[in-house]
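Entry 0007
Protein: Flagellar motor switch protein FliM
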Amino acid sequence: MAGDVLSQNEIDALLSALSTGEMNAEQLKSEEAQKKVRVYDFKRALRFSKDQLRSLTRIHEHFGRLLTTYLSAQLRTYIQMSVATTDQLPYEEFIRSVPKMTILNVIDVPPLDGKIIMEVNPSIAYAMLDRILGGQGESGANVSSLTEIETRLLTNLFDKAIDSFQEAWEEIASIDPILSDLEINPQFLQVISPNETVVVITLNVQIGDVSGMINICIPHVVLEPIIPKLSVHYWMQSAKKEPTSEEMATLEKKIRFATLPLVAELGKTDISIDDFLQLDIGDVISLNQDIQKPLTIKVGETPKFMGQPGMKGKKLAVQVIEEWRKGESDDE
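Output (structure tokens):
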């Protein structure tokens, strides 16, 4: 009963039973004092705390955002990715849960020991492959019939995709992820013992109209050296501190002496490619800049001031007359 929240009716009924003698208060106390037995399955050893699992979820939410950016650029289509679940279970249970034929990327993460497995659902993998080959991102092909060319294309795609692991994990560990193998049959993939505890992070993925999952399997042996860093206490300690006054003064000094390109734009014009090819020494190009109007002065590529051209001694110069305001030139 401890830990349960009783309703008002239940409280009234309990008090009534105690007052009428139907229940004995001493009996309730003895029952509460008895040790409660909780069943523990040694095949499902819980080796990670909820706090550590939350840290892994945060890391892979970041990884999902990085992977979304990379795949969107490579496949030139809308992609959405988010963490669905983070759970710990025996490796054997993970292998049984994935399809019989799927895309399994085996990743080495030196200097950490062991290997990480990134399982990509066949529907997602073929949608990616279809986009690479110029299609609309359709799915439905058979993974077991991957040709050498298709395997090579997917290997190249995932080889660069796992670089996002390095950036996502940089707050916890400095790793150098390497795609060591690509397998399609999980029965042939035995990287650790069946009863070894693994963390499985499931990402929901949407590529155009096709949806599926990416499962990231991380064995305990990989995370063991960095488990203390997965606590909230470590994350709070490693948070960036406010810069000191000396650091701010040094930064300000460096900014003040940084060099920037300053350009006074004399004008613009449009000419045809044919006219451009016919240009010769002595030809005159008419600009669209009115000689009575001030010039636009740009810092880098950004308009900042208005000025007028002139001479200072024997050198060409431009005099700043006012700040640039939007609408004063045709640049914007």
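Curator remark: The mean pLDDT is 80. Strands lie at 79-90, 103-108, 115-120, 178-183, 197-207, 210-219, 262-265, 295-299, 302-312, 315-323.
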